[in-house]
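During the reporting period, our protein records have gained a structure token line. One record among many is quoted in full directly below:
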Amino acid sequence: MRFVKLTHYELRRLRDQGYNILRSTSPLSSDNPSWYPDTVNLDDFMHWGSKEMRRLSRPFEEKHLLVIQDALENINEEDLIGEVWV
């Protein structure tokens, strides 16, 4: 396993392997965040009261995520930043 540049190609590969989000604990201001693929039930996950959402909202912990399908549909290739663990 290794880190590779985040691209639409890598996002499609991860989606096809069953992943639907990327998580990162890199600072939000990072020019090169490190992403880790994960699978969650998006319907449950995206509710503000969910356990996962509360965990992401802890003060001083800048965890963030990228929904793979949303990124494929709405983020241009040149605007993707970081590296993903594959």
In short: The longest strand covers residues 34-38. Residues 3-85 form one domain.
